[in-house]
Amino acid sequence: MKVILNSQDIKQAVVIFKDLLRDNQEVINRLNVYPVPDGDTGTNMALTLVSVIEEIEAIEDEPTMAQVTKAISHGSLMGARGNSGIILSQILRGLCNVFQEKDEVNGEGLVKAFKQAALQARQAVLRPVEGTILTVATAAAESAEAAFVSGKHSILEVTEAASGGAQSALRMTPELLPVLAESKVVDAGGAGLTLLFEGFLSLIDDRQVPDLISILPKSVAEVVSKVSPLNSGHGDDESSSALIVAPHGSDAVGDLRYEVMYLLEANDDAIPAFKDVWGGVGDSIVIVGGEGIWNCHIHTGDIGAAIEAGIDTGRPRRIRVTDLAEQVEEEHWVRVAEESGITVTNDDRHTGPPPVTAVVAVATGEGVGRIFHSLGVHRLVTGGQSMNPSTADILKAVEDAPAHAVVILPNNKNIIPVALEVDGLTSKIVRVVPTKGVVEGFAALLAFDPEAGPGENLNLMEAAAQRVVAGEVTRAVRNASSSAGPIKEGDWLGLSREGIQVVESSLAQASIKLLEALIVPEHEIITVIEGDLATVGDTRQIRGWVDENYPDIAVEVHHGGQPLYPYLFSIE
């Protein structure tokens, strides 16, 4: 049994915590009904810890306490995902602010660290709510301090007290937060946090690491087990539907439909005013960081205002926007499907009888994938420009698709030949619609009929893909020549089916010039799919140009998250 914790112990405790979150992330996801029932709390907490571990592993084999704590603090700040991930990052940073003071941590140091962690977590949230991870963190710290005052000074006794306090507070969360009681669950983030203390106990006392199901109240554990992949059975009593009581889609998120996150480079003294601005445009606001870099999270109905506040304050980067209504709708149907005994994977949101023809699409980007699923795709294969999937990758998706006939949408000219090989490798009937881009894939799906045969779908979908006017913008990686003029490395290229149409030094200008070349007066709508490199300012310029020059054309903007191509355009 350990009596003190050194730098290697702190590193190992974080590794154990990461593993526990990974092992239990689906259970935590199933508990997630607050602030939005989008089923991602466990995933976000686990991914936050993955970033921490990557940061730790980048330093030398025997790092000092200062190096370990710096890596944990920086890794959690830069890699925090979602509301729960940002709060968790602040808990870890609070621990490290105390751990870094000495090379070894004793019981008194743990008490101070648990208190600082709870304090920093609360300070990060603009409007703290009880019955959440904040309540659990505070209870753990208070229990540890009470144990120390009573004479229990060892790291084992202090951690046991913290763990007991956390679990007691977790059981009480439904009494503090009505939405938890209505859904018959405990707080998801708080449940995840209890695993931190279990990880420390495992390290200190060489205990067997429990799974989260054993920590949860019995009634909650029974409900979670019935809808979780950890249990293949599906209950038929009243409790088995407890996790489906929360409303889904836009009803669940209200007016605050979007989750906006970004890293903000700004002077520390500008952050209070930034918080005041955000306080007027949304809720679930968490802002953590310091020394010029801040991780910012908000739920809002006004994406522009949330991002413009960052632009006014400093330099926002790594901007991520999630449509919470779509995410909640998706999670709702996943849960309904599981409740009905239907097997659901990450690439299969469809319920009901198997289709005559299924669709496999190749794509990358979270938002693009969500759009493909909403249009009827049954299996997604990760791939695109510079990351072409293999024939085996596409074949596996075809074999997994829920129909004997399958249509493939390669969505890239380099992937078409690979997709064409699949038909000769399977007993299924496979047809390939030769889509050369994502927007052609979207257009093809508008003509897809799951009850029609593969030949009929091939003809209809190919015709639909050709009717749409497609464009995309990417960046040149080397000097070259083209029919549109000389190309220098770093230039922005506007591409159509005919090849390179535009070469510009500005992303917004390349996009506008491309649209100018593609739009005709008969067009009625432009769909814009924003990629990772798109910016609010560039999108605003593009929309402004269309509004000024083509006031009768509607513009729809969707977040795709695709790499390499900041803008994809579909013109109809």
Profile the largest sheet: 6 strands, mixed
Looking at CATH, which topology of the largest domain would you report? Answer: Serine Threonine Protein Phosphatase 5, Tetratricopeptide repeat
Strand order across the biggest sheet? 11-10-9-14-12-13
Please give the CATH architecture of the largest domain: Alpha Horseshoe
Mean of pLDDT: 85
The top-level CATH class of the largest domain is Mainly Alpha
Evaluate the radius of gyration. 26 Å
Counting copies of identical and different chains, the oligomeric state is single chain
CATH homologous superfamily assignment of the largest domain:
DhaL domain
* Total helical elements: 22
Q: Give the percentage of residues in beta strands.
A: 15-25%
Extract low-pLDDT stretches: 227-248, 336-350
Estimate nothing, just give the exact number of structural domains.
Answer: 4
Distance between the termini: 69 Å
Describe this structure in words.
Helix content is 49%, strand content 16%. By secondary structure, the chain is of the alpha/beta class. The strands form 3 sheets. The protein has a 6-stranded mixed β-sheet, sandwiched between helices. Helix 1 packs parallel to helix 3 (65-79), helix 1 (7-31) runs antiparallel to helix 9 and helix 21 (507-518) packs parallel to helix 22. The longest helix has 25 residues, at 7-31. It starts with 6 loop residues before the first helix and ends with a strand. Residues 227-248 and 336-350 have low confidence and may be disordered.
Helices and strands in order, then pairings?
Layout: H1 7-31, H2 41-57, H3 65-79, H4 82-99, H5 107-124, H6 133-149, H7 155-176, H8 178-183, H9 188-205, H10 212-215, H11 218-227, H12 250-253, E1 258-265, H13 271-279, E2 282-290, E3 293-300, H14 303-313, E4 315-323, H15 324-339, E5 357-363, H16 366-374, E6 379-382, H17 391-400, E7 405-409, H18 416-420, E8 429-432, H19 438-445, H20 454-467, E9 469-475, E10 492-496, E11 499-504, H21 507-518, E12 525-530, H22 536-549, E13 554-559, E14 567-571
Parallel strand pairs: 5-6, 5-7, 7-8, 12-13
Antiparallel strand pairs: 1-3, 1-4, 2-3, 9-10, 9-14, 10-11, 12-14
Helix pairs in contact: 1-2, 1-3, 1-9, 2-3, 2-4, 3-4, 4-5, 5-6, 5-7, 6-7, 6-9, 7-9, 13-14, 19-20, 21-22
